[in-house]
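Re: weekly structure request thread

Next one in the queue (124 aa):
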Amino acid sequence: MKKFTKVMKALSDPSRVKILKMLQRKQMCVCEIQNALGIAQSTASKHLKILEEAGLTTYKKDGLWVNYTLADGSDSPYAAAMLGNIRHWLEDEEEIADLSKQIFDIRREDICRAKDRQNQRNKP
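Done, posted below.
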């Protein structure tokens, strides 16, 4: 019952559902997810941790980047079932459709470059 509850709780937050919908289209790093949803990095990281613990997402380090993807569902039959269904659900929701278009214009290199410029301006 614990695995079932973890999956259901993870899916009870709209931001986490949006993250799953974005990750079904492409792998993303925290800064890209943060940018797409307009949330703080700590919030994005917290959501990703909850999704990972539920067996819904996984990550792989690639140099400095940590790339998040949808899990294969092998950790939990409940996660597998929900991942299979969520691929088809909410496709006609305007908010999901807008995010789906937007994520392909978000590039981690641009985000990091902008942060570097901001940090340079803030130095005394």
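The CA atoms of residues 55 and 75 lie 6 Å apart. The chain has a mean pLDDT of 91.
Next request, please.
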